[in-house]
Amino acid sequence: MSDEAGLKAALAGLPEGDESPLARLPGTHFARWVVMPGSRLLFSATHDRAVPDYVEQIARLIPDEADRVWGHCDGYPGAADPATFVGYMDKHRIRTNLFVSAYPHADLAEVREGLDLRARLGGFAPRAQSMGPEELRAAFAEAGLG
Amino acid sequence: MADSRDPRASALNLITEVGGRGRVWLRFLFFAATILPLPRLTVLRLRLIHYARWTVIGRSLFFESNFNGTADAYVEAFSYVFPKGMRYIWGSSKDFPGPVPVEALRRWIDKGEVETAHYYCAYPEASTKEILAGIEVRRRLREFNERTRGMDATRFATEYQALVSELQLQI
Fold first, then answer.
1. B65-77, pLDDT tens digit by residue?
2. For testing contact with chain B, the best of A41, A48, A100 (most B CBs within 10 A)
3. Mean pLDDT over the full length of chain B
4. What residues 86-115 of chain B have any CB closer than 8 A to a CB of chain A?
């Protein structure tokens, strides 16, 4: 990369949280860009898709942001042609040697649904203590638990 | 060491220099750890880590973690729960001081830490424990709903009480 300051400015200019372009990539649990020593850019994502599909959706879903960031990297072909983009990424891909996960079998939808159901049940259980059987069953369904 | 703004989703990047023999050792170690579950289970005993990865890049070892809480507390927990594993993994890294004393370890990590330029987490408000609890609640609710479909209200209420009692640690 020849313009590290420009790259850092581009990364600093990206919106954060739910507005992050990475939030628009389905299946993304965690992701980051890191400017490494030696003027190298590292992109890392923890996702639940097949790698080629995940990389292709970067070109399809966030092409402008991809160009703004990787446009500072040598030889970057742009995201206009997803196949070329995938080829470039594949050429520069580094395979992880060891990966550990606290919940390796849960995809993003399952994690989110689990968090939602846990919150619902946690809110429902105290209210349900005074309910009779019929009321309980109806309220259980109304609370989105059944 | 910079703490994250959100203590429930923090990122750490650590890059350390490793000699030639060290890199051969690491490749063997990581291969073994992929097959043997014990090292991974020990790391996950921390209950702070969502995901972590180790990658040999050129002459360096790159460690990346997504965890709950502050980086200081994370390093302290790592040093306490995983001292032997830390020696195996970072023992071949330049100037590694060992897992204890933790102050020396923190200084060493500070030197090798690389700032995250842009970070995204899909569920920044959730801790690892909450996510694991949510996954269990989801699984048990699915079983429960399957089992109680068509059941009369009195039996449903009994089954519900049993479910909530069994899930009290999760909710």
1. 998 888 888 899 8
2. A100
3. 90
4. 114-115
CA distance A64 to A67: 5
Q: Is the pLDDT of residue A90 over 80?
A: yes
What would the DSSP string read from start to end of chain B? -PPPSSTTSEEEEEEEEB-HHHHHHHHHHHHHHHH-HHHHHHHHTTS-EEEEEEEEETTEEEEEEEESS-HHHHHHHHHHH-HHHHHHHHTTBTT---S-SHHHHHHHHHHHB--EEEEEES-TT--HHHHHHHHHHHHHHHHHHHHHTT--HHHHHHHHHHHHHHTTTT-
pLDDT tens, residue by residue, B24-35? 999 999 999 888
Per DSSP, what are the bridge partners of residue B63?
B14, B54
3-state class (DSSP) for residue A105: coil
Question: Which one of B82, B135, B169 would you mutate to disrupt binding with A, by most A Cβ within 10 Å of its Cβ?
Answer: B135
For residue B44, list chain A residues with Cβ-Cβ distance below 8 A.
Answer: 100, 102
Neighbouring C-alpha atoms within 13 Å toward the C-beta of B62: 20
Q: From A138, which residue of chain B is nearest by alpha-carbon distance?
A: B153
Give the CA distances from residue B47 to residues A48, A100, B37, B51, B68, in Å, rounded to whole numbers and listed in that order. Answer: 21, 12, 16, 11, 9
Determine contact, residues B120/A23, Cβ cutoff 8 Å.
Answer: yes
Residue A96 — pLDDT band, cuts 50, 70, 90? very high
* pLDDT tens figures, A50-78: 999 999 999 999 999 999 999 999 999 99
Q: Is A142 exposed, middle or buried (0-12, 13-18, 19+ CB in 10 A)?
A: exposed
